[in-house]
Amino acid sequence: MSTATVIAARAGDQRALDVLVGEYLPLIYNIVGRALQGHADVDDVVQETMLRIVDGLPRLREPDSFRSWAVAIAMSQVRDRHRRQVQAPLVGDRADPTDTADPGADFADLAITRLRLSGQRQEVAEATRWLDHDDRELLSLWWLEAAGQLDREEVVEALHLTRQHAAVRIQRMKAQLDAARAVVRALAVRPRCPELSAVLHSWDGRPTALWRKRLARHTRECNRCDRAWSDMIAAERLLAGIALVPVPAALMAFAASGTGTITGTAVTVKAGGLKAMIAGWVAAAKPALVGIAATVAIAGTAGVVYIATQGEEQPAVTTAAPSQLVTSDAAPPPAPSSVPSSNPASPTPSKTTVPAPPPPATKSAKKGVSTNDKFGASNAPAIKDVKADWYYDWSPSPVASVSGVEFVPMVWGGGNLSSDLAKAKANGKTLLAFNEPDLKEQSNMSPAQVLDLWPQLQATGMRLGSPAPAYGADTPGGWFDQFMTGIKQRGYRVDFITLHWYGGDFSANATNQLKTYIQNVYNRYHLPIWLTEYALMRFDNGTVYPSTDQQVAFVNSSTAMLQGLSYVERYSWFLLYTSKSGDTGLYSNGTTPTQVGAAYRAAGG
Questions:
Q1: 3-class SS letters over 524-540
Q2: 449 contacts: CB under 8 Å, gap ≥ 6
Q3: Which stretches of sequence are listed as region Disordered (predicted)?
Q4: Under a CB-based contact definition with an 8 Å cutoff, are residues 192 and 215 in contact?
Q5: Homologous superfamily of 362-602
Q6: Position 466 pLDDT exceeds 70
Q7: Quick one: which of 128, 31, 149 has its CA closest to 79?
């Protein structure tokens, strides 16, 4: 959301206000819904929050802080509701029986069914039911941070904590979440462990923090149940790029009515506000902005607003083509300094519409491709045909010589470093360094190990890219942040940042999730970006790929977006060759592109 839109809405521009509310209603609903875990009060708290945002907007002094301000209002409303619940009178020795969760609005169920979560993602959603109120409140923000919808500064402001204290609380909450995941796994095993069944004898079937502690202790101590802790993918990896849970019909009705109640006083939305925006959607089924630039439509059944997907949902709606919804940033050129900026904050650039990529094959100075030595010299015709300006193969030596296409060498890991650096220097002017060192199955190196080797890379005199983390390059205190902090402390040089990104959300929102990640990294370090691996796939109980149509739509929209970002110097699709039907490969042989390959060949320019 641009600051200009906030300023216009604050000044009374109805269209800007509609856009503002359209973007933030899903975000606020997800924060409140997860914090209250589907309680019957969720809709009321969301209504109160949105009305307070609209009512308070004219008094907002710093428009560029709108999102953190809106999120803080939502959390304040959640806390107020919790205080009212705690202070509510008891009925006999028990709380008021009307103060219960709405079975039809259980947020874990909504996330699982409406986002089509499966495998370990589904386990994470189910595990949220076992957290206590404070952890669910924290989770509601951290989940959105992990998904790329919020950044750490916004989380810290909403919690009213110092960054360090927030980090400690988040780590503790994640530990409780992992314990709950182990409980979910153990309970799902059939036949069930006899000792676990004995522990469950007095359980009433409701997930609670107390029972999480009891059952998690059993899983740690039981030789049969301790396997529930094995092979857990980090929750932030599972949540990266995940979509927002769709807004329910009840909030649609509120928005259409244009009225609500705050602490017993009727409030009418100014100048039509929510009423005008939602009524316009219902009347014309027009897409509006959600998240950053997500496609939103009205379903033909139940009046549910949801993020339109290709292939996963089949409502009778009309949506614009993804390429018509991509936004580009009129951002300033990258800072010339090779040392990260000490100020991670940066104004959000304004957005302008980018046209669909042209259909003819074109050549882009940004566009590249990744390949490997499995196909040897047969790589050359495909690299040439795809109209790549550059390529790399995860090694210091080229697998093929392609006229007019630059080879960029890479040192994959720390072994044979002297020899690899000599080869790299002989084969190029730019150096890529260390593949996914934050994963044990890849180069598996600590930030300290990489920093100790970095002077040898600098000594080549080549233009030098950072290590390429598998994920979390925008996470304060994460692997990449530790590395960049060490670079600054030691006075070393990094000329550009290398990123990998794989989207698990196959909807039209994928491009915006990728864009958010790239923007967050750039805003934190202010260095040029190379995206050297990217595609749509999920690493969840095996690799899951989207449909060909979904992958093609993503190629079209993502390349248009990447071409429009001034600080993205280069990008490279994964992978040149297909190894099995339906994967991300661009070519089935040296001259025959897949449908995905044909789309990538036409991209750029």
A1: HHCCCEEEEEEEECEEC
A2: 414, 437
A3: 318-378
A4: no
A5: Glycosidases (3.20.20.80)
A6: yes
A7: 31
Q: Quickly state the pLDDT bin for 313 (edges 50, 70, 90).
A: very low
Cβ neighbors of 71 (< 8 A, separation 6 or more) are: 27, 28, 31, 141, 150, 154, 157, 158
- Give strand ranges (E) for 171-284: 259-262, 265-268
Among candidates 6, 5, 2, which has minimal Cα distance to 60? 6
19-23, 144-148, 337-341, 513-517: least confidently modelled range: 337-341
Is the Cβ–Cβ distance between 453 and 414 less than 8 Å? yes
Q: Report which secondary-structure segment, H or E, holds 355.
A: none
- Which is more confidently placed, 523 or 314? 523
Q: Provide the token pair at 61.
A: 């002094």
Please state the φ and ψ torsions of residue 212, each to the nearest 5 degrees: -60, -45
Alpha-carbon torsion angle 470, 475, 478, 483, nearest 10: 80
The token duo for 583 is 């994967």
Q: Coil, strand or helix: which one is 430?
A: strand
261 pairs with which residues across the strands?
266
- The helix/strand/coil state of 567 is coil
Provide the 10 A C-beta neighbour count for residue 506: 25
**What are φ and ψ of residue 334, in 5° steps?**
-55, 145
The pLDDT assigned to 218 comes to 96
Instruction: Count the neighbouring beta carbons within 10 Å of the beta carbon of residue 583.
Output: 17
Do the strands 463-464 and 497-503 form a parallel or antiparallel pair, or are they unpaired?
Answer: unpaired
pTM higher than the cut 0.85: no
SS3 of the chain: helix, strand, coil, percent, to 5 = 50, 10, 40
Q: Count CB-CB contacts under 10 A for residue 5.
A: 21
Using the structure block, give the residue that is written with the tokens 């998240």.
Answer: 291
More confident residue, 20 or 430: 430
- Tell me what pLDDT residue 41 has: 83
Whole-angstrom distance, CA of residue 34 vs CA of residue 42 = 9
Contact 212, 130 (CB under 8 A): yes
- Encode pLDDT of 232-255 as tens digits: 888 988 888 788 888 876 565 555
* Contact between residue 255 and residue 267 where contact means Cβ atoms under 8 Å apart: no
Do the bridges between strand 497-503 and strand 305-307 make them parallel or antiparallel, or are there none, so unpaired? unpaired
Which pLDDT does position 578 carry in this prediction? 85
Phi and psi torsions of 472, nearest 5°: 75, 25
pLDDT attached to residue 129? 93
DSSP state for residue 99 in the 8-state scheme? S
State the Cα–Cα distance between residues 561 and 357, nearest whole angstrom: 10
Residue 432: which of 478, 469, 379, 382 has the closest Cα?
A: 469
Please answer whether residues 138 and 169 qualify as being in contact, where contact means their C-beta atoms are separated by less than 8 angstroms: yes
Q: How far apart are CA 270 and CA 379, in angstroms?
A: 61
Domain boundaries, the chain: 116-242, 249-316, 362-602
